[in-house]
Amino acid sequence: MKKFLNDADGLxxxxxxxxxxxxxxxxxxxxxPCFVRRSGPPPRPKVALISGGGSGHEPLxxxxxxxxxxxxxxxxxxxxxxxxxxMLAAAAEVDMGHGVLFIVKNYAGDVMNFEIASxxxxxxxxxxxxQDDVAVERSTHTTGRRGVAGTVMVEKMVGAAAEAGAxxxxxxxxxxxxxxxxxxxxxxxxxxxxxxxxxxxxxMADDEMEIGVGIHGEPGRRREKLQRAxxxxxxxxxxILSDLKPRPGAEVLLHVNGFGGTPLLELxxxxxxxxxxxxxxxxxxxxxxxxxxxxxxxxxxxxLTLTVLDSExxxxxxxxxxxxxLNW
Amino acid sequence: MKKFLNDADGLxxxxxxxxxxxxxxxxxxxxxPCFVRRSGPPPRPKVALISGGGSGHEPLxxxxxxxxxxxxxxxxxxxxxxxxxxMLAAAAEVDMGHGVLFIVKNYAGDVMNFEIASxxxxxxxxxxxxQDDVAVERSTHTTGRRGVAGTVMVEKMVGAAAEAGAxxxxxxxxxxxxxxxxxxxxxxxxxxxxxxxxxxxxxMADDEMEIGVGIHGEPGRRREKLQRAxxxxxxxxxxILSDLKPRPGAEVLLHVNGFGGTPLLELxxxxxxxxxxxxxxxxxxxxxxxxxxxxxxxxxxxxLTLTVLDSExxxxxxxxxxxxxLNW
Lengths: 328, 328
Fold this sequence. Notes:
The structure is a homodimer.
Chain A: H1 8-22, E1 27-30, E2 35-38, E3 48-55, E4 72-78, H2 84-94, E5 100-105, H3 108-120, E6 125-130, E7 138-139, E8 142-143, H4 151-163, H5 168-180, E9 182-188, E10 208-211, E11 222-225, H6 229-244, E12 251-258, H7 264-280, E13 284-291, E14 301-308, H8 311-318
Parallel strand pairs in A: 3-4, 3-5, 5-6, 12-13
Antiparallel strand pairs in A: 1-2, 2-4, 7-8, 9-10, 9-14, 10-11, 12-14
Helix pairs in contact in A: 2-3, 4-5, 6-7
């Protein structure tokens, strides 16, 4: 897997410098300890939302810093947790006197480091743990479910609530509620390669796919022969629905997320089938997000995410947002 | 190269259905002859902008239909020109009595079919031919330079002018001017595979890159060993500048375009170096666009595009736009 690279050590530093320069109207870089923050204060003080995690999933989380979503994001090296000093520095910088909510994907390293930061932080704070991946109950680096593309729904909806004045307890409760209303599952057609490792994370034959793959290339439910796109979608939709169990007729948000190496044309092909399948099963897909949002470097593959909506969650999804990756 | 696919014949049809459903607030599908149009009329009648070309480059052009950019886009099958009946039907549908401007990338098939449409069309019309790729003077399917990622700048700036009331002659002149002020060059790290062909368009060794590649995998200037990212950027910037010859101190728009298979982290790495290099050479990069906008299916690689700005072009770039791929 060939990459644009000078040296693996400098990749994150230089990419961050590029990113904040390209989006100087939205974000600023705090170099050491390293985090990216929203540029300029919000219209009024609010709960500060901070996320973070290993890099290599861009635009998650850096691309979601800005009005209506995150106040700061702490990036680790590729597929490596950020450290508590980053989270503490970010919290000190973006706290507005209304407390800090950490939004954390469920991986052992992230959970541990955000917990340390939470305990050390002298500002009132709470944590939402995102665990939307229904593929497996335990994974390589995780106890319990992994947090994957559903993180975007948590960050967007809680971000909108915080912007509208929800307090820390309300933001925490909402984040947990969105997490429970959200489920995801993915499939990989290829591996990815961590720059510092310089080789594919896993091997897969030319006619195989990994059903239920994680966003770091963690094993899923099984390896099997590549199927037709429709059959893949139907399996993912089925696995998600049997977990979420939405009531008949429920409105849902459908998110088709590319892992980085799959063309947009194919993502829309998946979206078409998923929408048709959901409709045929008696649900109402009324909101859509299709594109590369929670990536796994250059992995070819995609995940489906469903969030069961109600009028409150729909309004929070629709609320204005201005970040480098979501903007409406 | 593994793909999400049912059958290659149905890919475009199903992907289009997914796309218009996911973006029903912005676009509508006209199924036969096939084109995508802006949903709802603009606030006031204006010159209608129509583009199109082979699919496989998404979000180009379909993702640029909407307020402030295109009124319609005509997609061909993957890497295959659309046909004159599509362009004629689109023109009949979106003409508002102020004429039609076709924006065409310079490939023999596209040029021929848009010319036929232009001649048959009984509505006043003009054509802007985009030829921004400085890599080679003639290519596999092209006489003269290829049209590549600079098409986005032409569509955005002319789109803003049309929205603001420019007439057909002004839009045509502006499009030609943006084309002359814009130059691009790309590099491929991998090939791509056309779904109907089912195999890689070209072969490349694991340690090679193609400097000056086209967006269908056409050969560039040379094949050589993969270099450091900084060296690649410096060569692309040098080639573009020696063609554009901006005056010292000129303001430029820098577009780092991913071909589909390169992670965002790497694109920002390229952006960082390109910005530094341009600044060091005495130019002022003041606007940025970084991401996958003119793709070549799943190809790993990227192109750089520069547009030399003046106050008019900068204002046209900054003007509001609401499409599925550009939105500000």
